[in-house]
Amino acid sequence: MGVLFFALHINDAITISEGEIVATSPQYDYKAPFEGQVIEIKVKEGQPVKAGDTLVVMQNADYLEQQAKAATEIEYLQKRIQSMAVLQEALEKKKDAIDQTHIIHSKKYQLDTNRLANDISILDEQYAFQLERLSSAYEKYVGDSILYKKDMLSKYEYNNSKDAYLALKESLAIMESERNRHLAEKHLAYNTLTGEQNSLQLTQLQLEENTQALLQSKNEYESQLIQAKETLHKIEAQLNKQNVIAAHDGLVNFLFNTRLASNLITKGDLLVSIAPHAITYYAKVIIPEKDMPYVKAGLPARLKLDAYHHLEHGTLNGKVSYIAERKENEKFYALVELPPSNKFQLKSGFTIHGEIVLQRLPLYKYFVKKLFKQFDKA
């Protein structure tokens, strides 16, 4: 007589009462970068797009006005700086001219003083020579006067001697006067040079003050130019965002509609959403804290979607890929990797429940394990 024996196996599992489907590659949302007006929509809902395609064209009149104003200010500042550069060059030429004039005056003074010194030296030699002649003429004149008084010399000879003496004396006086005139001229040349040099120094100081003032103004304009260029760069960076460009390939699944709302938008308003062509999903499931020690990566999970009745569509099978190391919003969670499936059209946010299978046990072992757990609780 034969005996038929078979054993039933049952899953020892952790119950999942809370969870949701999450897209691995979420849709890409393109929001208004600034307040403005939508002037052109270049795509339609459901249309495939590629990275680099223009989706929407925006416009901000204030930015355009600011751009024109900044460009005008930059042009004005550049012209001012150029004109100041021309003035700086003119001032440098004036300073060079003053330096040349200073050199010319110094050379002229040197030439004049050398000439006068030479003339004075010659006069001094002539004066010394004439002084010797005057001494001889004076002795002769005194001797002739004695002889004339004794009637030993004619009046004509006496007068000749006297006239020669007086002529030499007058010549010495003229030479002394000429020497004094040369000395006065030399002193005057020094005073003239000093006056001219002082005047040139004053002019140089004035030019230097003008140069420093011009340099300060130029630096201020250059600083304003830098700020204006930075402002223009920022404005242009915003204007470059007028064309909303797709960064990824995908399908347009939301589009700002000017027929339903005003084409005036505020910063941050959603303009376009693009979903990737192929979307993969995973499940994020909440794990009771008491069951956390038993959850391991690689354990199978059987999930039921609230959007699809499991008796009709079956369960969604996956595998635990990650276990959280700490709580999130006061709860532990695990991630379940989901294989591609044609049975379900998954969406992010679908709620789920189910179980994580720890092991498959014969029915009697399963009841023994549950019994011991009841004893542990007691």
Architecture overview:
The chain is of the alpha+beta class and 378 residues long. It folds into 3 domains: 8-24 and 280-378, Elongation Factor Tu (Ef-tu), domain 3, CATH 2.40.30; 26-53 and 246-278, OB fold (Dihydrolipoamide Acetyltransferase, E2P), CATH 2.40.50; 64-238, Helix Hairpins, CATH 1.10.287. 51% of the residues lie in helices and 23% in strands. It has helices at residues 61-149, 155-239, 310-313, 363-377, and strands at 9-16, 19-23, 28-31, 36-41, 48-49, 54-59, 243-245, 250-255, 264-265, 270-275, 281-287, 300-305, 316-323, 332-337, 352-362. Strands 1-15-12-13-14-11-2 form a 7-stranded antiparallel β-sheet. Strands 3-10-8-5 form a 4-stranded antiparallel β-sheet, with no helix packed on it. Helix 1 (61-149) runs antiparallel to helix 2. The protein is rod-shaped and about 180 Å long.
Brief digest:
Helices cover 51% and strands 23% of the residues.
Question: What class do helices, strands and sheet pairing give?
Answer: alpha+beta
Which regions contain 5 or more consecutive residues with pLDDT less than 50?
A: 1-9
What's the number of helices?
4
| Dominant shape | rod-shaped
Compute the CA-based radius of gyration: 57 Å
Q: How big a fraction of the residues is strand?
A: 15-25%
CATH class of the largest domain: Mainly Alpha
Strands of the largest sheet, in order across it?
1-15-12-13-14-11-2
Predict the CATH topology of the largest domain.
Answer: Helix Hairpins
Question: Secondary-structure element order, as H and E?
Answer: EEEEEEHHEEEEEEHEEEH
| CATH architecture name of the largest domain | Orthogonal Bundle
